[in-house]
Automatic annotation (TrEMBL):
Pathways per UniProt: Carotenoid biosynthesis; staphyloxanthin biosynthesis; staphyloxanthin from farnesyl diphosphate: step 4/5
UniProt keyword Cytoplasm, yes or no: no
Functional note: Catalyzes the glycosylation of 4,4'-diaponeurosporenoate, i.e. the esterification of glucose at the C1'' position with the carboxyl group of 4,4'-diaponeurosporenic acid, to form glycosyl-4,4'-diaponeurosporenoate. This is a step in the biosynthesis of staphyloxanthin, an orange pigment present in most staphylococci strains.
Family recorded in the similarity comment: Belongs to the glycosyltransferase 2 family. CrtQ subfamily.
Stretches assigned to the Glycosyltransferase 2-like domain: 36-158
Gene3D superfamilies: Spore Coat Polysaccharide Biosynthesis Protein SpsA, Chain A
Organism: Streptosporangium subroseum
Name this polypeptide is given: 4,4'-diaponeurosporenoate glycosyltransferase
Keyword set, alphabetical order: Cell membrane, Coiled coil, Glycosyltransferase, Membrane, Transferase
Compartments, record wording: Cell membrane
Length: 574
């Protein structure tokens, strides 16, 4: 069972809902864990001085706080200022590398703290910044805590290190700088707010908020995941956040851990250039970034799905059917691991056709040179860094879209396990299973001897049973080789079908556009007709009114003449 600290039981957190934890109020608890603040730095001695001055005024106990500044090749070299935490060291990056990731690796290699707190060298933290982080780490040993940044343009004369230390110590850090209204991490705020404080954020989204300015995590977790990737010169925080997701880490955005960011980030000043630089490297390492993996037929460093097929007791034909079915998936970024006793295949003399290991040799011969297929005698407990693993019994063939549909189903509700019931035999129900790597890793922390791992996954992430027919799994005898004899031809067929559908869509769009134009013209004609009708109605009404007026005039004229005649007759008779 995972523990935040010896003697402290870590509760089971479902998904990313850290709300089950109850962190103590600032200043109302007793810290016990040590923390190492690692600061990669290059140039900007003046900003570093302010960063260290703020750390010298933290509420977290000094004997539990160490600071390691790693000089990444500054010229002139950086120096430690007079105002800094008591236990502050300045080291150079280890020989053989450079950059932020390399500096972080150099610093964490010599860190003594139970928690690693990465901080940039242009951060001025508020008084209780470290404490706000650390109160979470005393509760569980798989939390990644992110601080909250306020950006300042540093207009005018900046404060001195002494002024920063005094202001922070007196809890007046907010008054040190003017906030920059034009810059900020609004996109992080929106993500956090849109997912109930990130408590119901889906697994595929968690790594997005892992920015490196101020973030902390248990040192054991940091080292277990492999630390920072020094081959990355930018985007190393995003990639590390992705790998932490696959360990089942919980991401906590701590709004109370405030700090000033002195000036803007490179990503803010040169956003387009940063994306152009980072996209190829992130696409290769972070399968969740689906929009970066739109190129057809590409293979990537980290697959989206690992497919596992076990050869135990299986014939060559059954294994081949399952492997080829997976390789022909419409989901291209996958790898297949074929499990078997491969070390038993020696090169000694044998009867080729009567070899008891013939099926195993045929499987190896079939896929020895396929870059998407690997051989293993056993598989690790999880498929990390791949986010999903499909375990498929030999002799069952996933349909062309089965993998894509299963992953889509898992992502829809952020489920940890999908079980496809294939058949039932004397041993029980035969299943294909899609596992979420993060869910398995989280469940493994807590599963007791008297518990089923699947039950714990279901409690923490959810699990669903599915039927084989609906999800297009078929036995090899029905599915193979009639449906395809060559995965390249199958890929071409799918591409041709996709292009055909695209042409049909374009043709339909043109037809819709033509119909819309025709409808527009008809509406215009109707409108013209309505206007003409209205004009004729107006003219007819005018003619009617004129006729009425004429008739009335005529009637008045007739009456006048009749009246005159009558008067004349009266006069004559008199």
């Amino acid at each position: 069972m995972g523990t935040g600290h010896p003697g402290v039981s870590a509760p089971r957190i479902p998904g990313n809902d850290y709300g089950v934890l109850d962190p103590p109020a600032i200043g109302a608890w007793e810290p016990r864990m040590s923390v190492s603040v690692v600061i990669p730095a290059r140039q900007n001695q003046e900003k570093l001085d302010l960063t260290l001055a703020a750390l010298a005024a933290q509420t977290y106990p000094a004997h539990l706080l160490e600071v390691i500044v790693v000089d990444d090749g500054s010229a002139p070299p950086l120096r430690l200022p007079e105002i800094a935490p008591e236990r502050t060291r300045l080291i150079g990056g280890a020989p053989g590398g450079w950059g932020i990731a390399w500096a972080l690796e150099s610093g964490t290699a010599v860190a003594d703290g139970e928690v690693i707190h990465r901080m940039d060298s242009d951060i001025v933290s508020y008084r209780d910044h470290i404490e706000a982080h650390m109160r979470w780490h005393h509760l569980a040993d798989y939390l990644v805590v992110m601080g909250t940044l306020r950006f300042t343009a540093m207009a005018g004369t900046p404060p001195t290190p002494s002024e920063v230390q005094i202001a922070v110590a007196k809890d007046r850090a907010a008054s040190l700088f003017e906030a920059d209204p034009d810059h900020g991490h609004d996109w992080i705020d929106e993500l956090v707010a849109g997912h109930r404080g990130f408590r119901d954020a889906p697994s595929a989204l968690l790594h997005r908020v892992h920015v490196g300015a101020t973030v902390s995590l248990p040192a054991a977790l940091f080292r277990a995941v492999g630390g920072t990737d020094p081959s990355l010169t930018l985007g190393e925080d995003t990639e590390l956040g992705y790998r932490l997701t696959q360990t089942g880490a919980v991401f906590v955005p701590e709004t109370g851990a405030l700090s000033w960011h002195l000036g803007t980030t490179t990503a803010m000043r040169r956003a387009k250039d940063v994306r152009r630089h980072n996209d190829p490297f992130i696409a290769d390492r972070v399968p969740y970034r689906r929009h970066l993996r739109s190129d057809p037929g590409r293979q990537w460093l980290v697959p989206y799905v690992e497919v596992v097929v076990d050869t135990l007791g299986a014939a060559f034909e059954d294994v081949r059917a399952s492997v080829d079915g997976a390789l022909a998936s419409t989901l291209p970024d996958l790898r297949v691991t074929v499990v078997g006793p491969w070390s038993s295949l020696t090169g000694g003399r044998r009867a080729p056709l009567d070899d008891p290991l013939l099926d195993l040799r045929l499987i190896q011969g079939q896929y020895a040179h396929d870059s998407r297929v690997s051989f293993a005698e056993e598989v690790p407990p999880t498929s990390a860094p791949a986010p999903f693993r499909l375990t498929c019994p030999a002799g069952w063939v996933p349909g062309a879209e089965s993998l894509a549909l299963l992953v889509e189903q898992a992502e829809k509700d952020d489920e940890g396990l999908l079980l496809v019931a294939l058949e039932e035999n004397e041993s029980g129900v035969v299943t294909a299973r899609l596992e979420r790597t993060a869910a398995v890793a989280r469940a493994m922390r807590f599963t007791r001897d008297d518990e089923s791992l699947d039950d714990v996954i279901a409690d923490l992430y959810g699990a669903t049973w599915l039927d084989a027919e609906s999800w297009k799994f078929r036995p090899a005898a029905r599915a193979y080789p009639a449906w395809a004899s060559n995965r390249n031809r199958e890929a071409v067929r799918w591409r041709a079908e996709a292009e055909s559908r695209k042409r049909e869509t374009e043709r339909a769009q043109r037809q819709v556009a033509a119909l819309r134009a025709e409808l527009k013209e008809l509406r215009a004609s109707v409108a013209r007709g309505q206007r003409d009708t209205s004009r004729w109605r107006e003219k007819a009404e005018q003619r009617r009114l004129e006729a009425v007026a004429l008739r009335k005039a005529q009637e008045r004229s007739f009456l006048s003449r009749a009246t005159r005649r009558l008067r004349k007759l009266v006069r004559d008779s008199a």
